[in-house]
Amino acid sequence: MNWEVCVQYANGSKRVLRSYKNRETALKCIDIIYSIQGYPMHLAYVVRQTPMPALQYA
User: Are 27 and 44 a contacting pair, CB within 8 Å?
Assistant: First the structure.
């Protein structure tokens, strides 16, 4: 299972920063970002599962 570290903006849009195979590693990445940059008011860093691709039938 893959996990994405995303930036979630105040308007609800998200942007993927990195992908990880381990959820704990992704969470540690967010901890490091917050420890360096602090906690901004206008965005949040979140971890989410990578969406599954749609199956295509031939």
Answer: no
